[in-house]
Amino acid sequence: MSTEAPAIAADGLVRRYGERAALDGVTLKLEAGRTLVVFGPNGAGKSTLLRVLATLLRPTAGTASVLGHDVRREGWAVRGRIGFLGHAPLLYGDLSARENLAYHARLHGLHGAAAAERVGQLLAAVGLERRADDRVHAYSRGMVQRLAVCRAVLHDPDVLLLDEPRANLDPRAAEQVEPLIGRSSGRTRVVTSHDPAGGLAEGDLALGLRAGRQELLAPAASITAEQVGELYR
Amino acid sequence: MTPAPPPSTGAAARAVLVKELRLERRAPQTLVAMALFAATSYVVFHFALRRDTVAGDLASGVLWVTLTLAALLGIGRLFVADRDEGGLEGFLLAPVDRTALLFAKAGALLAFLAALEVVAVPLFAVLLLGPTPSAGTWLQLLAVFALADLGIAVVGTLVAAIAVQTRARDLITTILALPLLLPVVIAAARASAPLLAAGGAHALTGRWPAVLALYDLVFGLLAYALFDFLVED
Question: Which of B21, B27, B62, B123 is deepest in the core (most CB within 10 A)?
């Protein structure tokens, strides 16, 4: 059994929007390099969990930590070490792909030749190098998603928080982003999914949420797609 | 890849400011709206006042009411791209001091106000102003513009950061900005009036520029202290 601090931990985590609890008492631990896959119907609290871990939302009660840093008190220490990919790509449509990535690179302390090289590598990795200087407004949704993946991993984060990361991606594009955000990236990952079989194959630990409550937490190998499917009934 | 150290506040502010100016250059919206409003107002004043020229208190009032209302348009649009395209979250995910955003946004608004005045003030002089100010008078007016613009930029950024998180953004901008900017308008108008007097400019008195400088200082410190709380959850 590992004695290291978990990469991600939550204890009685609650997040309310007014009277409504979007997360209600989530408790979990995830070791470094492992993948937590989060299942649940729309409105179950999956995105809220990711946003709390990303320090975009403060917990209403309970605690959460990323790489040993409390997200409420030490958000500054968490931010440079996470890559967040939500439903919105967080890209400016009137800037080109290269300009968008260069901007985010500067915000993460990368600049000059090192930043340009990193941006070029990532654009090539997702097959966008020939459209790198086009404005993002002119991109298809799949291209925007590939660029958003580049943004999320630009600073080589230790932890990835991925909200349905393969949405809008065709099979070839999904293959292209795999080394960046997939299991082979070697990073600690929290991934939301609506695909029970695919999600269980991708994860080490499965969390099931319904109406903010934790209904399931088990090693992914020990549960079946049918058990996950129960969350949606 | 070795993790890069987080950028300094200055470097982060520069990155955001460059991005703001690039977005405005790519898709000019804010400046065009501000300049068009100011030009239309001066034409309306020209006919509505039923006189060819104005001077002194009246000239100063017309000048500053128009510039302040034009500034409201810029304030209302200051965070629009960030809200619509998720840029604010992109910034909040970076390991940077939040006040970098305050400096950058206030800097951008200051640049828009300066650009507006480059267009609107000569137009005011041609369409409405009776006395032709000397070079020395223009220099003194420039000092008044600089002090007033700084106050408008700081308060405008604070108001815009509050308003962008509400659904009634335009209403909140107007409701908050107009009372807060009233001291700037009064002080700037009182400071400018003797410089625009009929029959030759009178000397700029120290009282009203001092009021503007004090306003800038107080609201600058207030903005510095509050901005973190305004942009974070």
Answer: B62
